[in-house]
Design brief:
The chain is α/β, with parallel strands linked by helices. Helices cover 27% and strands 27% of the residues.
């Protein structure tokens, strides 16, 4: 069984985001870029499934400019067998990503697709669900535990009221939550080996993907700085202060 894992290049989660002076984006020049943390968890889970003998190959895939190959090489160093780079210099929205991944799914015929539940840059949490719908296959989102057995994935999901366990027939799409696993560290010998692993580049435009980019971002702004708190002596003073601010 093949497992297809999506990786997204994002600003590293340890970096303090700065908005450009013109408000047309965030500063990425000279900023550390990494694999989206949820996608890294997805890859780790795929590798563990393969190491348990339940899969034979793990393929990582990403969409973006040439720089995305850095994150794909990191995925190969973690243990993926090969990588697919869909080359595009444009910002791509979730529906377009899902449609592009669907074409690769049709070509590769994986038994399982694992994606991070969301990307930390847009927090959309849409690609996995859209891909499952396009594939017309079951989905299990926000997974905190995954067990593969005889063509069925048993997934424990994190939901508002606690945990939910469901069984989905394979092929299926799974999206991963934070508590699923702890991704492994990449060692120098693995980085060197990754350079020899196959990385296929395909122009996104050559796939004939119908654009699903229906949203337009007009402006970026940093969050308003928090004002200093005010101490009140009792409830009546609190109510009065809220009224003065127009909150009551």
């Amino acid at each position: 069984m093949k497992i297809l894992v999506g990786l997204k290049r994002v600003v590293d989660y340890n970096v303090r985001i700065q908005v450009k002076p013109d408000g047309q984006g965030v500063v990425t020049e000279g900023v550390k870029m990494s694999i989206n943390p949820f996608d890294e968890i997805a890859l780790e889970e795929a590798l563990r499934i393969r190491e348990a003998g339940k899969a034979t190959e793990v393929i990582v895939i990403s969409i973006g400019p040439t720089e995305v190959q850095q994150q794909l090489r990191t995925g190969l160093a973690m243990g993926a067998n090969r990588a697919i780079h869909l080359v595009s210099d444009k910002a791509i929205q979730p529906l377009t990503v899902a449609r592009a991944f669907k074409i690769i799914v049709d070509r590769e015929q994986p038994g399982l697709v694992i994606l991070g539940k969301q990307a930390i840059d847009d927090d959309a949490s849409q690609t996995g669900q859209m891909l499952a719908a396009l594939m017309d296959r079951p989905q299990a989102t926000f997974a905190s535990k995954v067990e593969i057995n005889e063509g069925v994935a048993r997934v424990t999901r994190e939901v508002d009221l606690g945990l939910e366990t469901i069984d989905v027939d394979l092929p299926a799409v799974i999206t991963t939550d934070l508590r699923l696993n702890e991704p492994r560290f990449v060692k120098l010998p693995d980085i060197m080996k990754a350079k020899a692993k196959p990385l296929e580049s395909i122009p996104l435009d050559s796939l004939g993907v119908e654009s699903g980019d229906s949203l337009q971002t007009t402006h970026f702004a940093a969050p308003i700085k928090r004002t200093r708190g005010v101490m009140v002596k009792d409830v009546p003073e609190l109510v009065a202060a809220l009224k003065n601010k127009g909150l009551l």
